[in-house]
Write a structure and sequence with these properties.
This protein is an alpha+beta fold. It has 7 helices and 4 strands. The chain has one domain (3-132): Nucleoside diphosphate kinase-like domain (Alpha-Beta Plaits, 2-Layer Sandwich). The structure holds guanosine-5'-diphosphate (GDP) and magnesium ion.
Amino acid sequence: MAAQQTLILVKPDGVARGLVGEVLARIERKGLRIEALEMRTLERTVAEEHYAEHTDKPFFGELVDFITGGPLVAMCVSGDDAIAGMRTLMGATNPIEATPGSIRGDFATLIGENIVHGSDSPESAHRELGLFFPGRF
Ligand SMILES: Nc1nc2c(ncn2[C@@H]2O[C@H](COP(=O)(O)OP(=O)(O)O)[C@@H](O)[C@H]2O)c(=O)[nH]1
Ligand SMILES: [Mg+2]
């Protein structure tokens, strides 16, 4: 069991639907810690850097439009195996395949509007936390 930090976003669809409290409550009930939290609307350059691994995907433009389309909530979440723990709490990328009981499984139907982001590895977490919370983690 490793203590880890991960970047979690409540994406603009989650904020617009009033699901910030729901997501925060699930993180806290799991026993993970919210170390930092900020509401902001992303600049396109930050969004493009955040999703750099998807630059060549056909949905990249749509993804950047969506993530910059309204305020989101960015968090640093920490705890035992926080990266995998949050991925389980979030559910599969495609909400139709996400297990009921997970955030995406309970609240979403569209892959492009799946409520939350969570880092997928220690390397991604380090890079993404540096982008959202420079100099802090
Ligand atoms: N519109 C659209 N969005 C997608 C598609 N695949 C992935 N995405 C979005 O891009 C985000 C990043 O993709 P990925 O890193 O693979 O999934 P995640 O790590 O589970 O968020 C996902 O959360 C989706 O919102 C797709 O085929 N179409
Ligand atoms: Mg990802």
